[in-house]
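Support request from a user on the community tier.

User writes: "When I paste my structure tokens into the form, the page sometimes reloads and wipes my input. The last time it worked, I copied everything first. Here is what I submitted, just in case something in the input itself triggers the reload:"
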């Protein structure tokens, strides 16, 4: 299981007040990202509408439109009567084939992730308290046991990277890291995830934590660069053939 405190802080970022002029679209994106990343796991019951509206700072009509859109996409379903509510679908619908927009912008998404993860690594190496890294080490250990279960591995992977952002103490970096993870989930759902690749990636997670514990920012940045460019090289091969 992922650290409950980490999951709760990530959900607080998801449910922060919506400030976009297109509140409907941002609400759909915010909730959809939380579902894709496993922050709202399959079978999870969403908070009551009044509570969600208060947290997101939106009108009930906007929330209901967003919930309807996500229900129509197959990501949510509603149950009426006692014990009812709105729930995350279990199982979730399969990922769509890469869209033309995704194929055109995948490298920009990788560039943005690299910028965010560099900032996270540098600040984490400077600011992280050793106690902050304990739940992240537990996630690395858990991922070692999930190398043949990609969906569960990916959820732990997401929590690891968002958890690193959280130890910087920057709420904006947490929000940016969460959004970036959502974009990357759309991309990497279309590439293979063999046991050996996941094992190598998780070894890099462990190395990154070691560098951060030692306040070694240059080493941390080098590991992040290798970690992210590995994924980018795989995506480059996929997108050229798409």
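"...and here is what came back when it finally went through:"
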């Amino acid at each position: 299981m992922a650290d409950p405190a980490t999951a709760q802080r990530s959900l607080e970022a998801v449910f922060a007040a919506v400030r976009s002029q297109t509140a409907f679209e941002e609400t759909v994106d915010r909730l959809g990202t939380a579902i894709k990343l496993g922050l709202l796991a399959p079978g999870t019951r969403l908070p009551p509408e009044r509570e969600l509206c208060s947290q997101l700072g939106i009108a009930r009509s906007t929330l209901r439109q967003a919930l309807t859109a996500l229900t129509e996409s197959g990501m949510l379903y509603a149950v009426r009567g006692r014990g009812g509510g709105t729930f995350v679908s279990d199982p979730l619908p399969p990922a769509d084939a890469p869209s033309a927009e995704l194929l055109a912008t995948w490298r920009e998404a990788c560039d943005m992730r690299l910028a965010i993860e560099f900032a996270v690594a540098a600040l984490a190496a400077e600011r992280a308290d050793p106690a902050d890294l304990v739940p992240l080490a537990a996630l690395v250990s858990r991922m070692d046991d999930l190398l043949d279960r990609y969906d569960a591995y990916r959820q732990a992977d997401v929590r690891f990277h968002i958890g690193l952002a959280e130890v910087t103490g920057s709420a904006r970096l947490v929000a940016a890291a969460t959004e970036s993870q959502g974009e990357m989930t759309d991309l990497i759902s279309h590439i293979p995830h063999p046991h050996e690749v996941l094992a190598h990636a998780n070894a890099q997670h462990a190395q990154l934590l070691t560098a951060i514990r030692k306040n070694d920012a240059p080493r941390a940045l080098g590991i992040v660069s290798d970690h992210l460019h590995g994924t980018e090289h795989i995506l480059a091969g996929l997108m050229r053939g798409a």
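Agent notes: The reload is a front-end session timeout and is unrelated to the input. The first strand starts at residue 76 and ends at 79. The CA atoms of residues 204 and 223 lie 7 Å apart. Escalated to web team.
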